[in-house]
Amino acid sequence: MPRGDAAARLHGLGLELPAVAESRPYVNHRTVDGSVYVSGQLPYRDGELLGSGIVGLDVDLESARELARRAALNALAVAADAVGGLDAVRVVQMLVLVASTPQFGQQSAVADAASDLLISVLGENGLHARTAIGVAGLPRNSPVEIQMVCARAETGAQTQDALR
């Protein structure tokens, strides 16, 4: 994949990576043995939480899906910052937490929006293992939170070396 393809796809979706804000008393990511562990990301835009409440009660499915896309975009920004650019990101696993009523049962539909975004932007490098679960509540009363494990994307030469 030529350098810049992921950024071009992101731009084609009308999106751009947000600036990565410093966090305390924890870090936005930790790299261990080549894996990048991205801390849970909420659906912030320009420092403002975009939604609040419980999905299935205060927040409808489509709104939750948009919030999941935003949280995934924030997680993607952290990962890109950690590995040296968007084209170097390979998503390995994603955990999607959905603050929802016990009757909601569509956590996977919320998570699908985040998965679709990652695949649309990163192509093959956006394919990932995933867990989507409902929880009673999330920080700052956010409806969704996304955590990811990423790695540096392999180039064609690295892939060939690994096959030998």
Task: Please explain how this structure is put together.
- By secondary structure, the chain is α+β, with helices and mostly antiparallel strands.
- The chain has a single domain, classed as 2-Layer Sandwich (60s Ribosomal Protein L30, Chain: A).
- It contains 4 helices and 7 strands; from the N terminus they run αββββαβαββα.
- It has a 5-stranded mixed beta sheet, with helices on one face. A two-stranded antiparallel ribbon has the order 3-4.
- Helix 2 crosses helix 3.
User: What is the total domain count?
Assistant: 1
Name given to the CATH architecture = 2-Layer Sandwich
Structural class: alpha+beta
Q: Radius of gyration over alpha carbons? A: 16 Å
Strand/helix succession: HEEEEHEHEEH
Low-confidence stretches: 156-164
Instruction: Output the CATH topology.
Output: 60s Ribosomal Protein L30, Chain: A
**Amount of beta strand:** 25-35%
Strand order of the largest sheet: 1-2-7-5-6
How would you state the average pLDDT, rounded? 92
- The tally of helices reads 4
Supply the CATH class.
Answer: Alpha Beta
- The outline comes out as globular
